[in-house]
Write the structure tokens for this entry.
Amino acid sequence: MAQLPTLQQLAYFVAAVEHGSFVAAAEATHVAQPSLSEQVRRLEHTLGVTLFVRTNRRLQLTEAGRALLPAARRTLADATALTESARHVREMSGGTVSFGTFSSAHLYLLSALISDFRSRYPGVVTRVVGLNSSEVAAQVRAGELEAGLVQLPVDDRGLDVGPPVLVDSVVYVSTDGDRTRGRSPSSSSRTPRSSCPRPAGVPRTRCAGCSPTGRGRPG
């Protein structure tokens, strides 16, 4: 593979253009002048062209230098934008989080969970997707959703699934006392789980998470 210019070389080249000399460019970028000059020479060697006419008064761009300048500026701007995009994701200060739920999730902790998440990360847009629980698990596993609230049981391969957030109690109700005598509440199979921590003020009902293995949960 052919050798490519580095971002540092392009930055030194643009600085030299903007400041008119290697000495001024070196001062502006806080490097030694010989180091900056050497990187510009390496850039010229990599591209196979001369970028500057070196005079005693001021650097002058060659035709190749004038052609390179806008592309170099675009490349540096794109690199800066890339770094900023990664920072937003890393610090959860921007971007979109996709959260999957089953159809009756609004009866459980969904509203409180979303509200708690938004209060912690106000710069992040929350996208809620309604699916059945197996589809939520499959899309979290595939990376199409960051996390989800599911109704157990689900296929948990490749997922970090914590303890249940909530276990429903189902009771038998009848006007006939003989029918209900001796019966006790039993846990239903509807056991939602969530990737978000238990919001403040919500009764303790065994909070949990469903996210891709190794991803972890928000602190």
